[in-house]
Each structure stands twice: as structure tokens, then as C-alpha cells.
Write a structure and sequence with these properties.
Helix content of chain A: over 70%
Largest interface: A-B, 44 and 44 residues
CATH architecture of chain A: Orthogonal Bundle
CATH topology of chain A: Tetracycline Repressor, domain 2
Pfam family, one (chains A, B): TetR_N
Shape of chain A: elongated
Oligomer: homodimer
CATH class of chain A: Mainly Alpha
Protein name (chains A, B): TetR/AcrR family transcriptional regulator
Organism (chains A, B): Paenibacillus montanisoli
Radius of gyration of chain A: 18 Å
CATH superfamily of chain A: Tetracycline Repressor, domain 2
InterPro entries (chains A, B): Homeodomain-like_sf (IPR009057), HTH_TetR (IPR001647), Tet_transcr_reg_TetR-rel_C_sf (IPR036271)
Structural class of chain A: mainly alpha
Number of strands of chain A: 0
Keywords (chains A, B): DNA-binding, Transcription, Transcription regulation
DNA sequence: GTCTATACGTAGATAGAC
DNA sequence: GTCTATCTACGTATAGAC
């Protein structure tokens, strides 16, 4: 198979497995068996596991970038953008949990470069939420920034939490939680 | 060292390491080196890693039990109980993240018995929050149960999220998030 | 209870043929 | 690019001495 396709394929699978089992738990053996190639072949594309891990974080970053650029061009209301964000991020998680959450949970086991990447992803996600929420905020400007930031943390925590509970308890609590969030946003 | 002390010591350390690195990432080698004994000695107390994992989940359960019994006896307001819950759970997490969150993230890698225990812990935690929040809810009874449940998921997600962000970004966002939660509870 | 020693599998990684 | 073969290290686990 030509170079870029295989590389992309490996990153896609690694991303999926990170959502399912986490960075620490995935192995070149897992990847190679699921792709029908040998471990050595994966090592050709990503010499070290850290290299693959970094590629996955960059893939996650691209997803956030593409969402940000699509949302800034549109003329939706805050509520619509927030809904859009939620739907898209949930879809990006497939059957697993949020990959950023997964990497945060493994944080202390990650190589230094990946720690840095996970920090950046976390901040990027917050920045996107803050961008969305700032528009809808029409209170005193001094308090606004701090409140919007708090709200961004809350929204992200709730989305990630809903995915965790869905997997653990087999119950989709997202609609309920979104109702809570809408009440907060509308204040 | 006598039997029960050592056993307790091992569970305590395992719990701490689960908060820091997760169940998958901890090893008998870690544990033995930090305790100054051999791996074989740990295996004497917990023959298989799963046995130790289950013991840790039971330890987490005891913490929840003890909180529940302390809170049901007291005559605090909903806000006070919620604050109390938060402070105590945050303290229980030490320098790491919530151990239940950590186990949820590793869910698909856990042995079956541990999966079951993590489910029970998740439900127990929800039950406690629902107990606390139901008292303060004075709306239409039909809607109350569903709303309180949604609020419970939200509160738990926010506490766990705050711990994740604290570790990843080195910033304590808990006070900000708690303000958001208080706004929700007071509606 | 704790030790030494060891077995056995797996994980990350490399060398060299094709 | 992918393979076979191999290496070293580590993880879980057990046997048997003290």
C-alpha cells in the first residue's frame, strides 16, 4: 500500500483505540493484527510509539481546527453553535470516550512531547468554547470573561462526562445534561 | 509486618497510583519498590492484579458509604451538603484525578469483576448526589426526578472535569465551576 | 509474611532479506 | 513498504526456601 494511505490508516486506528482503551493500553501488536500487517511495518511508519501518539494528537487538533473554521464563518446563534459543537464532538468519539479525556487520564504516563500536545489540545478546545460563548454573553464586560471561561469548563466537562457515563452505565444521559447546559447558557 | 496493615498499605498505594496513572499502568513492580518489599510479597496478599483492583474498588466504596452516612445524619442545607460532598471528594483524590473517573477511562481494559464494581461505584455516587439534591427540589414532582438525575450527572461531571483540568493545565478551576453549579442548583 | 529464583508471555524496538 | 527473526525489558504469576 502506498505510503500516506497506510500512515493515515494507522493513525485512524490508533485514535480509535485511544478512545476505547487509552494510549497506555494500546500496542503495536494490537494495531498490526487489526491492520493485517506486522509490527515491524508499523514501526517503519512510526519508529517509536511516542511518534504515533504525537500524530494522533495532531489528528485531533485538525478536527478542532476544521470545526473552528466552519463555525466562525456561519451565522448561527450561540445555542445553535453549542448544539453543533456537541453533536460533532460526540460523533468524533464514535463508540468510545473523548480522546482528549482519554489522554488526560493517562497524562502522567505520557512522554513529555505528548504531555505538551495534550495541554495544547485542552487549551484549544477551551478557546473554541470561549469563542462560541462570548458572543452570547451580554453582561457586564468585567465579569464576562471569567464567567464565560467557567462556563466553557462546565460545558466541556459535561460532554466528556456524558460519554464516560454512557459507556460505563450503558445509558445515554447526554440529552438530559444538555438541557442543564442550556439553562446555564441562557442565564 | 502483620497481615492487615500490609494489606491496607498495598491497597492505599494502589488507590493512589490509580488516581495518578490508572489501573492499566500500575504494576506489581511499582508497588513493591515503593513499599520496599518484593513483588512476590504483594502476590501473597493479592494473588492476581484483579484481586487488588477489586480491593481498591471496595475501598472507594467504603469512602462513599462513610460520606453517605455522615451526610444523612446532619441537618445541613442542600448547598452546604453539596459543598461538603465536593470538598470531601476532592480531598479523597489527593494529587490525582478521581479514581472512579480513572477506572471509567480504563473500563474496556478491566477484568469483568472490576467492570461490575466500577458500574456499582458510578451508580452509588449518583445515588448519593440524587439523595442530596432531591431535598432541595421543590418543583412539580413528576419532573423532579428526571431533573434531579440530570443535575446529579452534571455535578459529578464537573467535579471530575475540574480535577482533570487541574492536572493537565495546572490551573485550579474548581471554584469557578462550583459557582456555575450553584447557579444551576438554585434554579 | 517475605524472600530468591524463575517461568512465561507480551511490549517496544531493531537488523537485514525481499 | 513489508516481511522474518531477534533482542531486551518488563509484567504477571508461581515454587519453594527461610
Amino acid at each position: 500500500m502506498e505510503k500516506e494511505n497506510r500512515k493515515t490508516q494507522i493513525v485512524d486506528l490508533a485514535l480509535q483505540l485511544i478512545r476505547e482503551k487509552g494510549y497506555v493500553a494500546i500496542s503495536y501488536d494490537d494495531l498490526s493484527k487489526q491492520l493485517g500487517v506486522t509490527k515491524a511495518s508499523i514501526h517503519y511508519h512510526f519508529e517509536k510509539k511516542e511518534d504515533l501518539g504525537v500524530a494522533v494528537t495532531e489528528r485531533i487538533g485538525q478536527n478542532l481546527e476544521s470545526f473552528l473554521s466552519s463555525i466562525t464563518k456561519s451565522a448561527m446563534t450561540v445555542e445553535e453553535k453549542l448544539k453543533q459543537y456537541t453533536v460533532r464532538q460526540i460523533a468524533f468519539c464514535g463508540e468510545g470516550i473523548c480522546p482528549i479525556s482519554s489522554l488526560q487520564s493517562d497524562f502522567l504516563s505520557l512522554p513529555d512531547l505528548m504531555k505538551q500536545k495534550v495541554k495544547e489540545l485542552s487549551q484549544f478546545e477551551l478557546k473554541i468554547l470561549i469563542t462560541i460563548l462570548t458572543e452570547g454573553h451580554n453582561k457586564d464586560v468585567d465579569q464576562a470573561a471569567e464567567e464565560v471561561e467557567a462556563l466553557a469548563y462546565t460545558v466541556l466537562s459535561c460532554i466528556k462526562g456524558a460519554l464516560q457515563y454512557k459507556r460505563t452505565l450503558g445509558k445515554d444521559v447526554l440529552p438530559q445534561i444538555l438541557n442543564q447546559l442550556n439553562r446555564l447558557v441562557q442565564l
